[in-house]
Amino acid sequence: MLKVMIVDDEPYILQGLQILVDWEKEGYEIVAALHNGSEALSFLKNNKVDLIISDIQMPIMNGLELLETIRNDKVSDARFVILTGYDDFSYMQKAIRNNCMDYILKPVGKEDLLAILRNVSNLAKESSRMREDQEKMADAFLASNIIALLKRKYDDNNIEYVNRHMQLVGDLRFIDIEVMSEPIDVEDDDYDLRVIQKQLFNACKEVLKENSYHFIFDVSYDEDNYDVGFIYCENMATRRDMSEMEFLNMLLHKIEVIMSQPVRMLCGKKVSNISAISKSYSSCCKLNSIKSFHSQKSIYIYEDEIKVGQSGVILCKAQIDEVMNAIENNDEQQIYTAVDKLYAEIQGYEDKSDVIDLNLNYLLFQLIYLASEQDDSINQEEIIQYISESSFDGSLIRGSSQHMKRFAVEYANYLTELRKSISRGILADIENDIKEHYSENISLRDLGDKYHINSSYLGQVFKKKYDMSFKNYLTNYRIKEAAKQVISTDKKINQIAEEVGYKDCDYFIRKFIEIKGCTPSKYRKNNRGV
Question: Which of 101, 107, 200, 335 has the fewest C-beta atoms under 10 angstroms from its C-beta?
Answer without folding.
Answer: 107
